[in-house]
Amino acid sequence: KTQVEQSPQSLVVRQGENCVLQCNYSVTPDNHLRWFKQDTGKGLVSLTVLVHENDKTSNGRYSATLDKDAKHSTLHITATLLDDTATYICVVGDRGSALGRLHFGAGTQLIVIP
Amino acid sequence: EAAVTQSPRNKVTVTGGNVTLSCRQTNSHNYMYWYRQDTGHGLRLIHYSYGAGNLQIGDVPDGYKATRTTQEDFFLLLELASPSQTSLYFCASSDGTGGASAETLYFGSGTRLTVL
Predict the structure, then answer these.
(1) What phi-psi label fits residue B72: left (phi over 0), alpha (psi between -120 and 50 degrees) or beta?
(2) CB–CB of A33/A70 below 8 Å?
(3) A85 touches chain B (CB under 8 A)
(4) Contact A35, A44 (CB under 8 A)
(5) Quick check: A95 and B43 CB within 8 A?
(6) φ, ψ for residue B85, nearest 5 deg
(7) CA angle (A49, B101, B91) in 5-degree steps
(8) Using one digit for the tens of pLDDT, what is the confidence trace for B42-85?
(9) How many CA atoms lie within 13 A of B60 on its CB side?
(10) How does DSSP classify residue A40?
(11) Taking CA atoms, what residue in B is nearest to A33?
């Protein structure tokens, strides 16, 4: 059973617009949550990691929130650029050590058009 | 700069073929992982390792072997490749926090394997 669900599956926005990506999960325990960006045919690059209840992070035009009670996270991208075209993957870790498992969502494919 | 390097970048083989995928990390990380990525699925863990000589079974290990020869090098072996193993394979390294800390989980660029 998929424990990390991302929505939407795909999204098309115009350059300069803002967008919000959603991640809902059922992983227990939920030690931390990380958002990755994956360019087509490339590896995953970490954008941010959230650890605590109601954590909020910011990394340039990317900002993220985590609600552990609701088991829900959002990734906001402000003023999108063409280079933001990629797949964004939500990952939930069930422990704060390498003994834990990472649970990967299938990703949201974002396409930014001129 | 932290790095995980995979080779080859692309590989085509036939059913029953013998394939070795290579991964090297220069992060001084103890933990290394092999994942496969298929359309519509999240990454799935094949094998992982705590250090040189150590091997642990992941979630989808059938048909795969792995070997960790040094702290830096982790190999994935497909001794009798099947079409179901056509996939994009990623190697990753971690410092032991399992990615719970910022900037402690690094992925390679992937190896695309096609089994005909």
Answers:
(1) alpha
(2) no
(3) no
(4) no
(5) no
(6) -95, 5
(7) 90
(8) 899 999 999 999 999 999 999 999 999 999 999 999 999 999 99
(9) 17
(10) T
(11) B100
Residue A7, C-beta contacts closer than 8 angstroms, at least 6 positions apart = A21, A22, A24, A108
Q: Are B24 and B42 in contact (CB under 8 A)?
A: no
Q: Which of B64, B59, B66, B67 is nearest to B82 (CA)?
A: B64
Distance from CA of A14 to the nearest CA of B (A): 25
Size of interface A-B (CB pairs under 8 A): 75
Bridge partners for B76 per DSSP? B21, B66
- The string of DSSP letters for B20-87 reads EEEEEE-S--SEEEEEEE-TTS--EEEEEESSTT--EE-SS-TT-EEEE-SSSEEEEEESS--GGG-E
How far A44 CA sits from the closest chain B CA (Å)?
6
Residue B45 to residue A99, Cβ atoms within 8 A = no
Single-letter code of the amino acid located at A13: V
pLDDT in tens, A64-111: 999 999 999 999 999 999 999 999 999 999 887 777 789 999 999 999
CA atoms within 13 A of residue B10's CA, in its CB half-sphere: 2
| Euclidean distance between CA atoms B102 and A46, whole angstroms | 8
